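User: Aspartate--tRNA(Asp/Asn) ligase, Methanocaldococcus villosus KIN24-T80:
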Amino acid sequence: MRTHYSSELSANMDGEIVKVAGWVHSIRALGKLIFVILRDREGFIQIVVPKQKVGEDLFKKIKSLGVEDVISVKGKVVANEKAPNGFEILPLEVDVLNTAKRPLPLDPAEKVPAELDTRLENRFLDLRKPKIQAIFKIRHEMLKSVRNTFYEEGFIEVHTPKLVASCTEGGTELFPISYFEKEAFLSQSPQLYKQMLMATGLDRVFEIAPIFRAEEHNTRRHLNEAISIDVEMAFADDVEAIKMLEKVVHNAIKDVLKNREKELELLGVELELPKKFDKITYDEAIEIAKKKGVEIDWGEDLSREAEKAIGEEMGGFYFIVDWPSDIRPFYTMPKDDRYCKAFDLMYKDLELASGAQRIHLYDLLVENIKKKGLNPDAFTYYLEAFKYGMPPHAGWGLGAERFTMVLTGRENIRECALFPRDRHRLTP
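Assistant: Predicted structure for Aspartate--tRNA(Asp/Asn) ligase:
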């Protein structure tokens, strides 16, 4: 049905016979001349239909086409400086593969704008828009780059269970499900499993997979099902984990700039390669927030107002390090009596990643679980891995959708998921 995508054609192919396929983006009849703009994954192709050259039957068939009909066109490439991209297609045969019901729920040509809810309700049509496709082509490039960096750095890709018997960190942000005669949950994070893998000798692992959080947030930054890029490194500390995260982010931005210039231009995004990643301590972050009038006490997690204030001051990418132990998960390695070896990667006021050096000592880990008000018996299988030679290790999780927000300049995380799941949306 197709020999070429639109991007594979050029004026240099003048006279060649090709076959293209896609959707009718627009059709304009000017007496005995019709112009059809065909849209495929890579762009647009102009089909020029002069009645005297194509004949009565083909002319009539093309004239009957409607917007978003699916067609395959066999034709001759004709160089024309006035045509888009310097060429057009003179059709020899046209196959109508399917027709579109009208009126359309929304306009893929974007002549009539639609609200986000309408777009998500009709996502299959929304995704036909070149700008929306550009988001996911950039996301694809990012994930490809991330994987390549991991492979180059000697990481092994793994997949941990998404049906689990206990929560990762305690708390109530869980989706319970019925698992035969037992209660189970959708996994909040691969955290416990990737730590257990550090006891196996695999040393460096990564996973790119869904996580599920039953958070009741209804913001532009939260999803209840998201893709997390997770890493765990044996014989490593928090400093080495931060360096790896910097490398992953830097390489991804570099590859997007190199390979997705067209998509960035289409979205109007001026993406810059970070020259450095600044680091501030939690204490310094709190002081910045207070100076900007945000009320926050030491030992509290950062409020949205605090994140905005700190983001205004810092700009770009930066790390917040040395967090109070009391507000970080039980598996985080203490630095001293008050602080732990945890870090967050921020972009302006948006948290992109969170990580730490982990506790690898069994007794200290059990003690920390109890300090958090949790029962060690609920973590039996996890704790077993720490009894028989667990090396020091560190890791992090990076949100794929949030990183895509940064790369594409989107302000709502729902635009960065194909079929987003939030508090109110379970379909399509």
